Amino acid sequence: VCLTCCSRDVMVKIDQICHKNSIKFFTGDVFGYHGYMFADLGEHEFVEEKPKIAKVNPGVEDGPDTKKAKLDSSETTMVKKRVVFCQLKEALAVDWSGEKAKAALKRTAPDYFLLQ
What we know:
The chain is an alpha+beta fold. It has a domain at 2-41 and 86-115. 22% of the residues lie in helices and 38% in strands. It is built from three helices and five strands; from the N terminus they run E-H-E-E-E-E-H-H. The two termini are 22 Å apart. The model has no long low-confidence stretch (mean pLDDT 83). This is SAE1 enzyme.
């Protein structure tokens, strides 16, 4: 489900319905130069391709580089990952008075507060 130009209450209500029924939810809007996008994909599983780390033979080379693991770009492995997305209601209900939230505030884009 994709929403745009909706009120906050409508977005929260539709996201709750989508989350309960395992339906992916996207919402966003633009206000001049500022905008936002939110995605609730529920439990999302995906596969990521990672380069294999080549083992270094001790005794073949000498020096500080021999201790470092080297990435072999020709060989890759597939790593299955799982991410659990939060609901829009939870994302908007952050308590900004706690110490942990104060540290996160520095990394939070000012556009987050457009919905507030």
